[in-house]
UniProtKB/TrEMBL annotation:
Keywords: Membrane, Transmembrane, Transmembrane helix. Residues 478-547 form the Transglutaminase-like domain. InterPro entries: Bact_TGase-like, Papain-like_cys_pep_sf, TgpA-like_C, TgpA_N, Transglutaminase-like. This is Transglutaminase-like domain-containing protein.
Amino acid sequence: MNRRHNVAVVGGAATLLASAPLTLIFAGLFSWFLPIVFAVTIVVGIGMGLRTLRAPLPVVVLAQLVGLALFLTWTSASGGAALGVVPTGSTLSDFGALFKDASDTAATATIPVPESPGLIFVAVLGIGVVAILVDLFTIGLRTPALSGVPMLAIYIVPMAVMEDTVPWLMFIPGALGYLWLLLTDNIHRVRRFGRRFAGDGRNIDMWEPSPLASTGRWLTAVGVAVALLLPLAIPGVNAAGLLASFGSGGNGDGDGGSGGEGAVRVNPAMNLRGALTQDKTTNLLNVVTDDPNPGYLRLYVTNEQSDEGWSWGGDFGSGVSMAQVGQRQGYDPNLPGKQYKATVTVLGMRESSLPLYPNPDEVSVGRGWNFDPVTSMATSDSRNTENLVYEFKFTHYQFDEKLLRTAPPVDQGSVIFTENTRVDPIESIQKLAERLTADKPTVYDKVKAVNQYFSPENGFKYSLSTERGTLGTGIEDFLQTKSGYCQQYAASMMMLLRAAHIPARGVIGFTSGTKSQNVVQLTNRNYHAWVEVYFQGYGWVPFDPTPSGNVYGAAEMPWAPDSDTIDRSSNGASEDPQGPRGASGDPSLAGKDPLDPNMEGVLAGDDASAPKGPATWPYWITALVVLAILLAQPGLRRTSLRSRRLRPNGDGTASAHLAWRELQDLLIDYDYQGPPSETPRGTADRLVERPKLTGEAAEGVHVLATAEETARYSVHPPDDETADRLAGAVGAVRAELATHAGRTGRLRIILFPPSVLRAWRAAMSRGVAGTANALARARGRVRRLLTGLIRARGRA
């Protein structure tokens, strides 16, 4: 095999190793990895073949792109292609459909995602382009160090899309592939110098094992170890994922009844907004229950407030054993209620909290889950709900206005009061709370007044596109603009109640969904936020301030009349003439199935101006600018060096040495460097012979050689006239050498000058070698110390 072909093959293998993190994203392996293997093989094969024919670099890259396009056409869009492989106009339409399929799947599916045709197409295209870039940097431009940039981009993909951290083990294959590529390229460079000989003079074949390769393998191992362990020594870098892998591995037992491996760290508020703004409806849960009206299904609870309303945090691993579920305190034993049971099947959700109805009495789930009696949440720091099936029993209490009006104010010295009435002193919110609750005789009447304030009659409207006000905080802006979705409604009510010294907390979960017989279907359209208020003797009671017209599956709460229907009765009771919540306000939602594809977009909030997520183009532009700056560094460094060396400094000797050093770097850039022992005059004579410098260039190289000889050997430095000619001489030689390099060669030298890359590579090698030597010395000292201790113990 041609020696450069060997480097090309290693580059392809390194690309495949760098794709290892994608195994975290896809549910399977062969359906996406085999096409990637074929795509990389095609790219490497085309490059090897055309380089054998000595094709120019642009032709090689163009042919690789064409080959990748033909392969993608054949595997993904052959229906409208000529001969099944040649793209046509319809092929481009098919490609567009595949991109849309990939976007839809990525927006709605949970990780690991199903292997849809669109995602496989995007994966093969992306890895194919990376393979072309690696081949270009490694073989075409002979700068294999830059191949790490596209390989690193593959590792960044799961970091950007996964909710939890990427396992550190996924870093190792790509790092080993990258170092393998550098090692192979450098061994090839060294072996170009000629044949090797053993210490006894024996001739060594070129492909016999080399001590240099052994050293490279040791440096590779040290480099990977340092890359993994260095974050442990850097303040502020989270290395918990690395350290956790050496621990017990969590509390899970590995069975299917415990859920998926690994906790999920996701902001529930952001997850809520993302679910509501999706164009596609996805079935998340099926709940089988004997409760005819089970109400809302709780997922996350928080008593932490912020300028935006509430914040989420806490340790998901805290709590007590699941066997202690149901030990509630502070409830009136005479409170009417009935126990029901429910079986939950998770279809498309990955969370570290179990969806539960309020007041659970017993939960049957695998190991690794804990129960928090304060929030009634079942959470885990090592498991998630992926494909989980579990059962639980719960008590459905029958609240009504008469009962809740008997609740006395909560003791201000109790933990419940202090933990759930903390609120920042915002003057506008405090005044509004005082105005709404003034002259209200009971706690319940105060809560009801705040709940009814969010009525459309007061100007509030439901919108997924929140408006920015002029008051500063998110809650103040919402109360000013009166436009937002369930999170703003619930957070605002929570803050108003707390400002009125009434314990309240925020909840995110699901509405009552679509019920057929005893099966409740819950989709991403049922994600919702509401408030729970604490009543002495009755516990936490749910209130939903969001007008029900745009909330699919909103449950009817007799004690909390819908804010879409203003209560004008003397005793506070209200009748909703349009029936259960969810049918009023927007008749188009009444009786509609959220899984009906014709309802896409309608159920997303009926807001044509609702954003579909933050714009991504600023990030792409920023990434391209950063990449351009990084790629420009070698060329900028070379220009800076040349400018400093040729700048007049009034010292003839120094000017001669600097000009000669610039000439040596020019010879490295244009591949005309000579042996280190060559004299200045010998260098000048050689360049006149090859590459046949003529005219000003030939005269200039002799001027440079004469000045260098004078600076080295003469008592008198070069005169001012000679020093003034040095910059022009270097420019003439550089211009003449450029004519022998060709257009591609000149571009390569401008962007990635070999002299700079060689200097950087040497500096990196010295640093790595110094680190390895320091580790070896430390290991020797430890070994000697241990040996001395063992001997001392033996003598004793």
